[in-house]
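Side project, low priority. Logging it here so it doesn't get lost.
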Amino acid sequence: MTYRVCFVCTGNICRSPMAESVFRARVAEAGLDGLIEADSAGTGGWHEGDDADPRTVSVLDEHGYGTGHTARQFQPSWFGRLDLVIALDAGHLTALRRLAPTEEDARKVRLLRSYDPAAGADLDVPDPYYGGRDGFEECLEMVEAASAGLLDSVREHLEERPV
């Protein structure tokens, strides 16, 4: 059975598509392509149908990640098919937990940086949208740092599942 992860930020053009691309690469490197699926969405629909921000695409390309992406808005009905919903900051965490139809669904929502043991107390990935390219580079570093721990956690859940 496939384990499904959805990364969520505000508009689904910067942070969440970056996290999706990095995590997909980690999944492929681990040889788990058929077992884990990743996608992304935004808490709002302002950019639905748009490509990822050009700065996101540029940073991902420069670091060897895939970049095919079309923005969309997260829907509460998705909780039923998702195993894990990864919020990029505390505001997204709160919004997603409010959208969750059940307590069980609300427990599926986690902060990405909670999977990075070196993250410290600030678990937000800052929104790079209104800044320069440096913010996108910083975002990528945070996403990469958390992706290994996230993959380890997902792998544990996969091993616990009945066959």
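Brief comment: Residues 61 and 140 are 12 Å apart (CA to CA).
Revisit when time allows.
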